[in-house]
Amino acid sequence: MTLRASIYACILILGSATAGRAKLRIEPPTGNIDLNEDKVFICKVEGEAEELRWFDKLGEEIYPDASDRFSLESSEYDLQLLIRNAQVDDNGVYKCTAEAENGDEIERSISIKVIQRVTFDNVISNLDFDESDVATLDCIVTGIPEPTVSWTRDGQDVTRQDRFQKLENNSLVIRNIQPSDAGIYFCVGRIAARNEQESKSIAVKVNYAPRLISPAPEVVFTWLGNPVNVLCSVESFPQATFNWSHRGQELGESANVSIVANGDVSVSVVEVTVDSEADLGEYICNASNRLREVSRSIWVKEGGFPSAPQNLTVEPHSTTVQVSLGKPASDGGIPILGYKLEWKSDGAEWSSKMTESETFQIVELEPFTLYQFRAAARNGKGLGEYSKNVTAKTLSIREPDRPKLTTSTEGDGNAYRIYFEDTESGGSTVLRHNIKYKAEHAPEWINDTVNGSHSYLLKDLEWATHYQVQVAAENRISESLETFLNFTTPEQPPSLPSAGSATGEKAKVGTGGIIGIILLIFLVLLVVVDVTCYYTNQCGILMCIAVNVLGKPVAAAKRLEQEMGVTSSSVDPKGNFYDLHGINAVHKYSKTKNLGMSNDKISLTKSETLPAHEKTSNNP
User: How many structural domains are present in the chain?
Assistant: First the structure.
């Protein structure tokens, strides 16, 4: 006890000494000051202390209004140091002191650092240079501590390229600057100690003389009375100006000249209306800017008619022919606009058809008839010369040609639509299409006929199965040869019913499922009734399990014992032994030992002391 009391006394003494000791605190705790900024540092005292004083980095005391940049302001519990227009020379450790109540001197120090964030001075944000010049991009970056400087363009360090160099004063030099060097450059200053980074953008433009863009044609064909556009395209910076001349005379303002500019590309367009041959000839385009002038000649010439189409071929059928031809050897200098095809039978007049395609079909011909065919190309000037006549004889009326087949999937992917296209009816209208199909593993074909439609839907197909299809067209003469088609259905999607269920049908519950649902409902009702019986009438399956398996007493017997105040075997305070086993025992005691019973309550009254042999007997 003495040792414990001594320890408590020491703790109390130390606590009192600590509680009474004065402390100093400086706010803010960090001493960073931005260059040329003002900042206040507050020295606060906690506890009893006197004579708060501030000392500079040289250990000399700072007095109120000692200078223009240092001053003090005091209150009862603190002394504030104000530093105005902070300079780098102000860096150092400053100290605040005070005299404690016991006469000891206490102090607190703070390290003041004057910093400067990354600063850019006199940076010109837009610069122009002429092509091939030596370009210098100046960037004066200051900061404390001194930042490192880098140059980037499109996020890449440009100083890694041969013509780019960073000087000691951080300027960027680009030797033999090219138009491709134009863009936005970034001067990046970084102070690693503070993880501080700032950047300044400089837009660089490179002036270069006009350059002709070659795709424009040097010869333009037209015809009398037709206007034509003459183009002159150049690339330059700054934008070029255009001047047009024809036969030694400038076109002047009366000419229909327009200029379209897109970035560095400029296009000048002159619309020339050829009213006479005097409007044909050489047109000169002069494009210039302050660096240079370039010229280009475009000749306007009268175009000719196209030559005859080449390789005219005719494939006859019963009432139609399929015609194909090749482009003419010469278009006359003017683009081909289309073709004119003519045909006739012996002794008849020429019939004609205009088309833009090089393959086409002529219909409604007479079967088993000799025809002559010829074709001519057409350009803007007019129709050219005809090809040599080609003779072909249509076939007699017969069965149709094989139909062309195409397919497309429908629904969930196991349905395919077959489309029929009849290329030649054999001279008699196609009446129907006969179709048959089967899965590759199936032993028999499924047959069907399509009337008045050019498609057929195969549905409810097996998944991931290869199918074979055959289609024939039929007219009043006969049936065509069959066209064969093979395809494979895709794998069954996971979300769809298993194979064998109809596409689009909802899943149905079978007889077994219905019986299972009924049994489940019956079982739930049985459990609910049994639980109700258990809690209300103390009967049922659960009650039987509770009494016979778990040994739980019957509620009525338990209530009886509680009212009698005894268990099935008990001794009263005077040593009298009572043995109760069920209601029969109660009746026996009521006859011999004055046991009284009412309807709901059984009371036990001892009238006399039981004999000794009855006290020890377990059998009443």
Answer: 6
